[in-house]
């Protein structure tokens, strides 16, 4: 099992927890030096707060543990949305790996490609984006 498989498997486990709670089935983990330093699953409906996506909560989890996120890798089973993309860029996450595209609200899709646009000077370079196939996991 390679790293993508290992960490994406954890995303799917977290997504299953979200689904059991009536949430969108999204899970996210943040990895530094091969170790998960933050993780979460979708809780928007449960907490009645649209900002409580898996990615933002995983970032909060890592930050609450005192972790610097610059250059880390985020795994999530679904492409980060525009909102999550802003938070990812703000924390200078270096690599984002996902399986399924989100459609028109995804952070890699023009005209609101916050995750991939290189025109935001204050954030520096966008993260490396890797879209992996479910079959390859």
TrEMBL record:
<protein>
    <submittedName>
        <fullName>Nucleoside deaminase</fullName>
    </submittedName>
</protein>
<keyword id="KW-0479">Metal-binding</keyword>
<dbReference type="InterPro" id="IPR002125">
    <property type="entry name" value="CMP_dCMP_dom"/>
</dbReference>
<dbReference type="GO" id="GO:0016787">
    <property type="term" value="F:hydrolase activity"/>
</dbReference>
<keyword id="KW-0862">Zinc</keyword>
<feature type="domain" description="CMP/dCMP-type deaminase">
    <location>
        <begin position="2"/>
        <end position="110"/>
    </location>
</feature>
<dbReference type="Pfam" id="PF00383">
    <property type="entry name" value="dCMP_cyt_deam_1"/>
</dbReference>
<dbReference type="InterPro" id="IPR016193">
    <property type="entry name" value="Cytidine_deaminase-like"/>
</dbReference>
<dbReference type="GO" id="GO:0008270">
    <property type="term" value="F:zinc ion binding"/>
</dbReference>
<dbReference type="InterPro" id="IPR016192">
    <property type="entry name" value="APOBEC/CMP_deaminase_Zn-bd"/>
</dbReference>
